[in-house]
Design goal:
458 residues; mainly alpha
Length: 458
């Protein structure tokens, strides 16, 4: 039991089972707090997807404009682009459990407010945009707080399993939420979907106080898979410094493996990955399929994502090289998919594409959440949030332009070649930097090895 003098953020760590070298994808679920956290995340994801299922329909009902629907989505995403770094700094500064509980409560309050306004017929476009903006602002803190809180519940060696389980929970919650959203709207109305989402946030907030970390986060003896001795010394030297946004930016930019990870993920996000766009055009265009055919592709992508999450959860200490190799393999599969002569061939390729993408994402997320020292992880995730949002906004227009110029097949082939070529070039440059340069060694005159060897005269 926690000591009565301990603060909520410094509760006594839960007992950690001895390391058994297990590579089971479910090993993170050995910890009671992780099991509760997974259940809470399932409920939250289901509620969120219930709301997302009806949100665009609600905007169309209010405005009758597709452009307004896109605007509401952009307003909700904009804070992540502009404020994620500040949100990450807040996560580093404030107690993590308190931060996550408060942010979940605020998101629940926004969902309940929307539900009341919809039920009363008082929701117009201006109010909707304000609520969407507030949701985006709170999410800049909630995202890194919840991600890092989940990692605290397991030892560092089991973080890949925790991330993989989280991916499975997300997929299961998405399927359940989309199904429940349609049923809820049909029988209870749109407001009920928002209210259900509010309840799901409050459920998560009620679980958080009872979670116990697998180790004491500030205990000098705990295993920290950070960048190494240099980071540990810098951490001890700067414990008394202010937790500024600049520190997170500087650390990220000076950490080559994080910059490389950003480059790999960025080029993949812009020229690939957006399969809901590229494969939809390929299936309904050159392959002469319909909406049902693309629905089949979407199902196979979802199955591949689940398989990839299970495989990714088996990782222990993934490297940036592994992320790059997986991204390059996915890019080459994308090239072959672009050349598919038939819908059946495309289906065969879609499954490994989704598996490789999900394993690569799990490995990259693990590196991102464990490489920085503990005091900087919120800010590093904040930097990543801003950068990844920029990629998310740039990717669809770039691919749309590429498809206009080269067609769906050309976009998939050229995009895959750009990804694989960029990653390959990066590997070659890295290897070149690591080639040792021979340095001549000058031997002292009194060293026997430096004396000339005497040979007998011929």
């Amino acid at each position: 039991m926690p000591s009565s003098l301990a603060s909520p953020a410094s509760a006594a760590p839960a007992p950690v089972p001895p390391a058994d070298g297990s590579r089971s994808p479910w090993r993170s679920l050995k910890y009671r707090s992780m099991r509760w956290w997974s259940l809470a995340n399932f409920v939250s994801n289901a509620g969120t997807w219930m709301q997302l299922t009806v949100q665009n329909l609600l905007v169309l009902q209010i405005t009758g404009s597709a452009a307004a629907t896109g605007l509401s989505m952009s307003v909700q995403a904009a804070p992540a682009l502009l404020m994620s770094v500040a949100g990450g700094a807040a996560v580093d500064r404030w107690p993590r459990k308190v931060t996550a509980a408060v942010s979940q409560t605020l998101l629940g309050a926004i969902a309940f407010t929307t539900a009341v306004l919809v039920a009363c017929g008082r929701l117009d476009l201006t109010v909707l945009l304000v609520l969407a903006g507030l949701t985006g602002v709170v999410a800049t803190v909630d995202g890194p707080a919840c991600a890092l809180l989940g990692n605290d519940l397991v030892p560092p060696r089991d973080v890949p399993s925790a991330i993989g389980v989280g991916s499975l929970v997300h997929s299961a919650g998405r399927l359940a939420g989309a199904a429940l959203g349609g049923v809820t709207v049909a029988f209870l109305g749109t407001a009920a979907a928002y209210a259900a989402n509010g309840v799901s946030f409050l459920f998560v907030a009620s679980v958080i106080p009872f979670l116990r970390p697998a180790y004491a986060p500030r205990d000098p003896g705990h295993e920290d898979p950070g960048p190494g001795p240099e980071s540990e010394s810098s951490e001890s030297e700067s414990d008394g410094q202010d937790m500024t946004v600049r520190q997170g930016l500087v650390f990220f930019l000076r950490r080559p493996r994080l910059v490389a990870l950003a480059g790999i993920t960025g080029v993949s996000a812009v020229f690939g990955r957006n399969y809901t766009l590229t494969l939809a055009v390929l299936v309904t265009g050159p392959l002469a399929g319909g909406a049902g055919s693309f629905g089949t592709v979407s199902t196979v992508l979802a199955v591949g994502g689940i398989v990839g999450a299970v495989l990714g959860a088996r990782l222990r200490r993934p490297s940036v090289r592994l992320v790059g190799l997986l991204a390059a393999a996915g890019a080459l599969l994308q090239v072959v998919a672009g050349l598919s002569p038939s819908f059946a061939v495309l289906l065969v390729l879609v499954l490994p594409m989704a598996v490789v993408e999900t394993v690569s994402d799990t490995a990259g997320t693990t590196i991102l959440q464990t490489d920085p020292p503990a005091r900087l992880r919120g800010r590093v995730l904040g930097v990543w949030g801003s950068v990844s949002t920029a990629w998310g906004l740039a990717g669809p227009p770039a691919l749309g332009l590429l498809m206009e110029l080269a067609g769906p097949r050309g976009a998939l082939v050229s995009g895959g070649l750009i990804i694989a070529g960029s990653i390959g070039a990066g590997f070659l440059l890295r290897e070149r930097e690591n080639v040792p340069v021979p340095v001549p060694v000058l031997l002292r005159s009194d060293d026997p090895a430096a004396r000339p060897t005497l040979h007998a005269a011929a």
